[in-house]
Every structure is written in structure tokens, then in C-alpha cells.
Design brief:
Blueprint (H helix, E strand, L loop, with lengths): L9 E3 L11 H19 L4 E5 L10 E6 L2 E6 L6 H4 L9 H20 L18 H27 L4 H17 L9 H6 L12 H13 L5
Parallel strand pairs: 2-4
Antiparallel strand pairs: 1-2, 3-4
């Protein structure tokens, strides 16, 4: 989760993207994610778009922060090689699809926050004690990342079924690369991604968030690390 900087930032409304003075890269990302953001706002999620105007080398290109009771979808792309590297190996025609999935992932975080469920577990779920405070924090973060991954996949299944398999495969590769790079297990969501691999994982009539919740609960039972 992102710690917001003091507002040396440019707040953007979706209709103003073309006239905002954004870089071409920022514009591409926001246009690709616009359907997700529009959907989130239609669901009543309190989400703002913030573009960091200062250079942010090695920052996460897109992240979510919370401030004043609102979700802040923050782009940190200027002077940041990670903004291109995150899509390394993705074909040009599929890049928009992956950006849309990343946006939906962040919307999953916003939904958890807006519902007051951040780091909370479902009623009746018994959480085994962690070995240390650090281990507990890693586990809580991993679970939030898993839920957000499932929201992204539910979105893709609903809106881009033909590309669902490609997005799921890409997400699995991203998670494996993160671990191989020495990242902590807070982003090791592979157990949940396996659950999402079934042909009918998101065929139910429930909302995207409710469908993600069903698979998230299943994965929680095996997440004891």
C-alpha cells in the first residue's frame, strides 16, 4: 500500500485526460484503465486519480493510497523505468489489457478499504497465530493482494473473456518474478491464482467483488504462513 506524498500531485478527472498535460505514457495507462475507474465510481467507491509530477525512479508505477476517507489511485511514472519494465514481454496488442487488469487490482484494494474491511477476515474465520509480528503483517498484506488479484480476474472474466487466460498467465509470471527477485512473501498470491484457473471460476451471477470474495475465502483456509 502506498504512503501518499504531500500533494505535489496533479488530480485528474477522466473527461480531462486529453487536456491534462499528461505524458503519453500516463495517458495510455489512464485511458486503458478508464472503464474500470468508471465502474468503480458507479459502484459508489470514493476514488480519485493522482499523477505525481515529480520524477519517481523505481516507484511502483500504479498504486493505491488512502487519504481523507478516499482512495487515491496514484501514477508515479515520470523518470521511472519500472513503468515500462512492468510490461516487459507483453505484446503491444495486449498491453492495454494488462493495464486494465492492474487498474482493477487497485480497485479491489479500494473496495476493501471503503467497506471497512482492510486487513479484516470473514466472520467465523479462525486465524492461526503467526510466528512473529512481521510474519503476521506479511500474511495480512498477502491476503489483501490476493483479494485484489481476484477482483482483477473477475473483471477480466466479465469484460474480456477471450483474454482471460492470457491475463491469468501474465499475473502468475509477475508473482513468480517478484519472488525470484527477493520480494517478501507478501505478494505470493499463487495459491489464489490457482483457484482462479478453473473454466467456470467467475461464472456466477454475483457482483465482481462478491465473486472474488468466494474464491478469496477458499484460499484463506490454506494460508497459514
Amino acid at each position: 500500500m502506498l504512503k501518499l506524498l504531500p500533494l505535489l500531485s496533479l488530480c485528474i478527472a477522466l473527461p480531462a485526460i486529453a487536456q491534462s498535460g499528461l505524458t503519453p505514457l500516463e495517458t495510455r495507462w489512464l485511458q486503458a484503465g478508464a472503464p474500470v475507474i468508471t465502474y468503480a465510481r458507479e459502484q459508489g467507491l470514493p476514488i480519485d486519480i493522482v499523477v505525481q509530477p515529480q520524477e519517481a525512479p523505481n516507484a511502483v508505477p500504479m498504486a493505491l493510497g488512502f487519504d481523507g476517507g478516499r482512495c487515491k489511485l496514484v501514477l508515479s511514472m515520470r523518470g521511472n523505468a519500472q513503468a515500462e519494465a512492468v510490461l516487459q514481454g507483453v505484446s503491444a496488442e495486449q498491453r492495454g489489457l494488462m493495464i486494465e487488469a492492474m487498474t482493477a487490482h487497485e480497485i479491489g484494494h479500494c473496495q476493501r478499504y471503503a467497506q471497512g474491511n482492510w486487513h479484516a477476515l470473514p466472520a467465523g474465520f479462525v486465524d492461526p497465530a503467526a510466528k512473529s509480528m512481521g510474519a503476521a503483517e506479511l500474511r495480512e498484506t498477502r491476503r489483501e493482494e490476493a483479494y485484489a488479484d481476484l477482483v482483477a480476474l473477475a473483471w477480466m472474466h466479465s469484460r474480456h473473456l477471450a483474454g482471460y487466460g492470457a491475463v491469468l498467465a501474465w499475473m502468475k509470471k509477475v508473482r513468480v518474478r517478484a519472488q525470484e527477485g527477493g520480494a517478501a512473501s507478501s505478494h505470493a498470491t499463487q495459491a489464489w491464482l490457482v483457484l482462479a484457473g478453473g473454466e467456470h471460476a467467475f461464472d456466477g451471477p454475483a457482483s465482481l467483488f462478491e465473486q472474488a470474495q468466494v474464491l478469496w475465502r477458499k484460499g484463506l483456509s490454506g494460508d497459514k504462513g
